[in-house]
Amino acid sequence: SGPTLDMPVPSSFNDIGQDWRLRHFVGWVWYEREVTLPERWTQDPRIRVVLRIGSAHSYAIVWVNGINTLEHEGGYLPFEVDISSLVQVRLTAQTSVGPVSDFYTLPVGIRTVAVTESQFLINGKPFYFHGVNKHEDADIRGKGFDWTLLVKDFNLLLWLGANAFRTSHYPYAEEVLQMCDRYGIVVIDECPAVGLVLPQHFSNMSMNHHMRVMEELVRRDKNHPAVVMWSVANEPASSLESAGYYFKMVITHTKAVDPSRPVTFVTNSNYAADKGAPYVDVICVNSYYSWYHDYGHLELIQLQLGTQFENWYKTYHKPIIQSEYGAETIVGFHQDPPLMFSEEYQKALLEQYHLGLDEKRGKYVVGELIWNFADFMTNQTPQRVLGNKKGIFTRQRQPKAAAFLLRERYWKIANETRYPHSAARSQCLENSPLI
Ligand code: BDP
């Protein structure tokens, strides 16, 4: 009928979006839904088809196939209407082009992905990842799938101007990838190989299992155009001798299963010691300068980052993504000059990283993914304050100061690099930095 917003039901449209006009809106809203009925329902005249509304507040007018069908006053309580005649009308229209049987639709997009010495190309054009790492995590819900949370997260990604995320550190629910396809968010799809740190993790048994997992991942996600690269692991002990053969095999196997996409793993090993890096298409490197290393020394970040990038590039001549960087930040902690754990420190650390990234952006650095999109729960350790607090949003999805900094940066990059002539298609897509 026109522009619409994605709106899971039940949920609060006041809370789910980032548009202030909806934050306090009270009044008429239009809710639209397309439903496919089983053929039998529409063909057998003895079957009554009843539309039941659980509740709609407070005055509702219901149209079915464009026909004003029912009005109801008063929220909270259910009401219903017999729509048998309406769905039969629709069937007649559909059968005029042939018999209709039960079906489901699978949207498939077409695009190409390629990697050069210094570029990541989507449809032949250089692409820069400006995005986040995520987790499937929220208060109470934990890892459980939740449409309301998912739509909120996508609204936040659009608000932020992000065009990409990595499914750290495991495959996410399929609905997440469906959303990425629709919203134009690019995905680095990661398998659950996190914590490969002991020599026995690189055994043949482990390797064979790893290959099977990659097959399963590719089989499930290969039809999502949003997926542009596979990540076979996060922060393995890739400097171990046995890691060389291991990653050669796992990466070669993944490429054989899907020859159309680049393959990587995310490293935190030293460039000179990493045995897996020769086999990846893109170097994805995590570093926590001024957090786990030289903590407190923000002034060293640019130097360290520059050295990191140059060392990796001169060794491998492959495009590089800064796949993690960040700082623990307790929302509401303020300190100036900045000290660790304050919102000011997170901002200052990001600023220094961005200066370092901008030095190499457009040369061979092809992306940056902040750690992390939102605070998330972990087991308790002396390094964690009720979980990991490196989110730019809190676990309740409210922005810390750094979120505004990142938003300005991502939209600036999006406006520099977005494809021209991309007309907005609907309200939910209109803000997508990718299309
Ligand atoms: C990185 C890991 C990530 C952690 C992060 C951190 O890849 O899973 O959450 O460190 O310590 O090394 O915050």
From TrEMBL:
Residues 23-88 form the Glycosyl hydrolases family 2 sugar binding domain. Keywords: Lysosome. Its main location: other. One of its GO terms (biological process) is carbohydrate metabolic process. GO terms for cellular component: extracellular space; lysosome. Signal peptide: none annotated. It is found in: Lysosome. Coiled coil: none annotated. It comes from the Eukaryota. Residues 113-414 form the Glycoside hydrolase family 2 catalytic domain. Gene3D superfamilies: Galactose-binding domain-like, Glycosidases. GO terms for molecular function: beta-glucuronidase activity; carbohydrate binding; signaling receptor binding. The keyword Ribonucleoprotein does not apply. Belongs to the glycosyl hydrolase 2 family. This is Glucuronidase beta. The gene is GUSB.
